[in-house]
Write a sequence for this structure.
């Protein structure tokens, strides 16, 4: 377990450095604490209001103190701050939008894996045949296609040409109205799913091709194990490393892609809100949103690390020994 | 005893070897993908560089006039007058696409080069010296990677807007340079990672040990032994990286944080009219897609040629 | 006898088979490669009786491994051609598809491979790996399969079988892993075992133990054994018959004792001579056979060993010697124009001796 403590501290350090840097970047360039207070409030302030904000958030001190102030508020008071742009506490901005982005991410990864795993396994099994070659070409293109291009193309196809989906819809939770929800989320989810599925498929295929050449696979066949079982039970389990690692990095990168997709399909989520906040110099919102994102990335990284031990007993033992 | 495969006693060993070699060499014709990529890029670069001198490319500023009337409001679809139609202001979509390629390529190449230099340097330092240097640099790289790239980019560009106004000596920085700087920073992290991994591997190879045993200092080893061997990897990653950075530039322009002479900007500006005037959105999309694809194809081919893993996604 | 006899279900010894168990007639295995047709196995014939052990000996590149895999049918189908007849228990298996062979693999014919570390699934418990063929071929329930697996571990003399069943391959030593491989192979009670260099990856001290375990299993189950190796020492004590392969062809075959006592092929003689002997002083030069194995795409005309044979004469380079049976022992055949003991052989030997003196 010492290993995890180490990793955890490392990732904590990353969290601190990143959030601190964001704070500095966002607050840089102000001429005076009063200036900063105005930026924070988004409107001109009376001297009392100004003084109040300055003392509350330590705006007259150096960045480190300001950061500690923010951190203290976050940890002890769960105070994410106030958004002058939206005229509401950041929490309220965050809450409804978190679900949208999380759902998008879940859909994309879930269906991405659902497509990628059988695709890659079959590709590796029937290596270099037509299916493999066509599949590789398709995944190559799907990986490289820029998000906006894919989104526009899908929109063109489904909204304009076939008219299946509405152009604009009210974002709706699945438990409120499933049909509406699917209507609104299908295209954005698909735009995210295709590149992710392609990445996973490529990684898994590469690993599986290597694994299937191993001796123990030949032995499994020589034991009389049917090929389906050989490939899925023996082959797949030994080929998961790249995939698991990718799952980790992708979940983080997803937020970035979500930004584009949410903007393109007019979905109101973390991503699109973040853009609005950055452009509107909404200091606290940006700070908090980024903190949430980095926290998610850190947690996911840790979980990915954990899962390596779950999959491979050799790693489990090596770590247990220190 | 019948032996079907009796070698032809009239040919010499040399001729037989030669015959086999010819068979091997013929198979090295580059595949379709790379050919396409290179052709497309060559044509694009040619068109965009010489656009001013090519008669069939209008100026992107000038409007398209038919019978003296400006074809604004997406009047013209793809056709003879304007190959790819006109946009909301009556400007030629084709011309804009070609001219904007200049900015895209400039941004892409500059960011990649800067990212390569900085990221490569960091990676080499981390990979060669290990220990504390490595740990510090690795944590920095981890931090860069922790923020989603697009989010970081938007933050940097918009803050640079503000800071630019405050600090006079940064006044020269046009949006273009802000973007180049931002994308360079984005490129540093993955490059540093790959270069670090390669450097660590190269460090243990015999030629490095040999060099050191002859008394070569660290600087010499890094520059004369390790760096030349990193070049194939760097070139490969640069090619694929170019594709990614160009896509990123498009995304930034799309969101409104980029320059307005960009395909991404065109896509965003015209997407409201997707139903009525698809051409104003689709053609810039196509340009973006094909350019990125071309670089990806070249990068993929290079990675196979130089046997570099981790270069392509 | 082993500790605890093999369970009834896996005991195949009772099955009666008329005639030889394995019958190969002019078996060839060719691979289509960009370089040309690789004739890895080029006309091998032999028979193997029930319960007997055959050793196949040769250098790397002689085709011995390909032969054993070819018999089992384990080679990839793309680019592979098999010719000739392979009969197992009277039935032709040379033309069967992998799908058809799957019923035989593990059940009637089993194979153990050279490197037990890479041949066992690193992520799967030992018990599960042994139980797998039991569940598939014999339809056993999980508990029955585990109980049988436990007994198999005892058969191959692995102590603390209960603990071992729950372990992973990397937690065991090389010798133990190889025993596990043997246990897996024995699981369904096959009538034929193919052992492909089973001891090469092991320490010398462990090699003998493994061979003993194999021999014990053989006796208990009346199982045939094909032991493929490059090491003559391995086959010496554990086989009834030895077949020597070179360049894809069978060049000598004889009952074990007779081969060592009265070999006919210069190649076999060379192999024997290359084994370092205990009586020799240390740092004595090893007698190696000079040269390299022949190119299997364009094998030399005539005898394939001729380019390296110390007694080579003109006829050897021109014509390929057929497999001849020795007059005094019908079980001993060889392919050589001037075998060991013939007048030409002695002449050549004298020639060599004099040229060595002259230097």
């Amino acid at each position: 377990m010492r290993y995890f403590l180490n990793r955890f501290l490392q990732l904590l350090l990353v969290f601190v450095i990143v959030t601190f840097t964001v704070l500095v970047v966002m607050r840089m360039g102000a001429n005076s604490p009063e200036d900063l207070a105005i930026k924070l409030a988004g409107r001109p302030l009376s001297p009392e209001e100004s003084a109040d904000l300055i003392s509350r958030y330590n705006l007259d001190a150096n960045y480190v103190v300001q950061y500690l102030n923010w951190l203290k508020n976050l940890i002890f008071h769960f105070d994410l701050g106030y958004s002058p742009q939206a005229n509401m506490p950041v929490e309220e901005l965050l809450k409804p939008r978190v679900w949208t982005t999380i759902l998008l991410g879940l859909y994309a990864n879930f269906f991405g894996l659902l497509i990628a795993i059988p695709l890659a396994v079959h590709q590796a099994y029937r290596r270099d045949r037509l299916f493999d070659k066509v599949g590789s070409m398709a995944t190559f293109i799907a990986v490289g296609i820029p998000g906006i291009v894919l989104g526009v193309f899908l929109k063109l196809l489904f909204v304009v040409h076939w008219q299946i989906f509405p152009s604009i819809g009210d974002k709706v939770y699945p438990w409120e109205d499933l049909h509406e929800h699917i209507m609104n989320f299908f295209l954005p989810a698909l735009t995210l799913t295709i590149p992710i599925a392609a990445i996973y498929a490529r990684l898994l295929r590469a690993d599986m091709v290597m694994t299937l050449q191993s001796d123990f696979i030949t032995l499994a066949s020589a034991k009389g194990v049917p090929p389906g079982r050989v490939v899925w039970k023996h082959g797949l389990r030994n080929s998961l490393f790249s995939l698991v690692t990718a799952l980790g990095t992708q979940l983080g990168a997803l937020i970035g892609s979500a930004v584009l997709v949410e903007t393109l399909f007019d979905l109101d989520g973390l991503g699109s809100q973040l853009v609005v906040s950055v452009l509107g110099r909404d200091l606290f919102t940006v700070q908090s949103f980024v903190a949430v994102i980095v926290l998610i990335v850190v947690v996911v990284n840790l979980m990915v690390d954990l899962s390596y031990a779950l999959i491979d007993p050799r790693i489990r033992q090596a770590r247990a020994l220190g | 005893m019948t032996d079907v495969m009796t070698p032809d006693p009239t040919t010499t060993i040399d001729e037989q070897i030669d015959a086999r070699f010819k068979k091997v060499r013929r198979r090295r014709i580059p595949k379709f993908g790379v050919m396409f990529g290179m052709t497309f890029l060559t044509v694009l670069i040619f068109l965009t560089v010489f656009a001013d001198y090519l008669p069939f490319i209008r100026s992107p500023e000038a409007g398209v006039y038919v019978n003296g009337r400006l074809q604004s409001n997406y009047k013209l679809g793809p056709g003879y007058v304007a190959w790819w139609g006109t946009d909301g202001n009556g400007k030629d979509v084709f011309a804009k696409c070609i001219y904007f390629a200049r900015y895209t390529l400039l941004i892409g190449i500059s960011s990649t080069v800067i990212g390569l230099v900085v990221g490569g340097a960091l990676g080499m330092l981390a990979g060669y010296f290990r220990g504390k240097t490595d740990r510090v640099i690795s944590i920095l790289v981890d931090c860069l990677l922790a923020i989603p790239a697009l989010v970081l980019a938007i933050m940097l560009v918009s803050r640079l807007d503000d800071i630019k106004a405050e600090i006079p000596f940064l006044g020269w920085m046009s949006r273009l340079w802000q973007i180049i700087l931002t994308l360079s920073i984005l490129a540093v992290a993955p490059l540093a990672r790959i270069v670090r991994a390669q450097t660590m591997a190269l460090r243990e190879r015999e030629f490095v040990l040999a060099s050191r045993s002859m008394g070569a200092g660290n600087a010499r080893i890094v520059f004369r032994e390790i760096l030349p061997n990193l070049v194939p990897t760097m070139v490969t990653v640069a090619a694929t990286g170019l594709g990614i950075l160009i896509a990123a530039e498009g995304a930034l322009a799309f969101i409104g944080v980029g320059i307005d002479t960009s395909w991404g900007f065109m896509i965003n500006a015209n997407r409201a009219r997707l139903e009525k005037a698809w051409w104003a959105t689709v053609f810039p999309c196509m340009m973006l897609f094909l350019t990125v694809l071309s670089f990806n194809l070249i990068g993929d081919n290079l990675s196979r040629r130089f046997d570099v893993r981790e270069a392509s996604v | 006898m082993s500790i605890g006899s093999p369970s009834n279900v896996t005991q195949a010894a009772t099955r009666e088979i008329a005639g030889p168990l394995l019958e190969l007639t002019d078996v060839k295995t060719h691979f289509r490669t960009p370089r040309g047709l690789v004739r890895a196995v080029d006309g091998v014939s032999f028979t193997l009786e029930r319960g007997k052990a055959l050793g196949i000996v040769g250098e790397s590149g002689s085709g011995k491994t390909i032969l054993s895999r070819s018999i089992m049918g384990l080679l990839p189908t793309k680019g592979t051609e098999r010719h000739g007849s392979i009969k197992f228990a009277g039935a032709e298996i040379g033309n069967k598809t992998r799908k058809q062979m799957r019923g035989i693999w593990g059940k009637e014919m089993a194979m153990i491979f050279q490197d037990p570390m890479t041949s066992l699934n690193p992520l799967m418990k030992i018990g599960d790996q042994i139980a797998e063929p039991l569940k598939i071929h014999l339809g056993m329930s999980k508990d029955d399969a585990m109980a049988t697996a436990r007994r198999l571990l005892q058969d191959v003399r692995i102590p603390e079988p209960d603990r071992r069943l729950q372990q992973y391959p990397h937690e065991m030593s090389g010798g133990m892993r190889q025993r596990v491989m043997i246990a897996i192979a024995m699981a369904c009670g096959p009538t034929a075992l193919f052992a492909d260099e089973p001891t090469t990856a092991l320490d010398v001290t462990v090699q003998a133990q493994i061979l003993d375990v194999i021999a014990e299993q053989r006796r208990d189950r009346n199982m045939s054994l094909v032991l493929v190796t490059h090491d003559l020492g391995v086959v010496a004590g554990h086989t009834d018959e030895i077949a020597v392969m070179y360049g894809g062809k069978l060049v000598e075959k004889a009952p074990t004792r007779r081969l060592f006592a009265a070999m006919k092929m210069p190649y076999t003689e060379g192999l024997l001579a290359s084994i370092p002997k205990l009586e020799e002083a240390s740092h004595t030069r090893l007698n190696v056979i000079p040269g390299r194995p022949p190119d299997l795409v364009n094998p030399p005309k005539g005898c394939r060993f001729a380019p390296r044979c110390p007694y080579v004469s003109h006829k050897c380079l021109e014509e390929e010697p057929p497999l001849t049976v020795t007059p005094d022992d019908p079980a001993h055949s060889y392919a050589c124009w001037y075998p060991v003991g013939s007048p030409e052989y002695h002449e050549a030997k004298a020639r060599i001796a004099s040229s060595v003196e002259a230097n």
User: Anything to note?
Assistant: Strands of chain B lie at 65-66, 69-70.
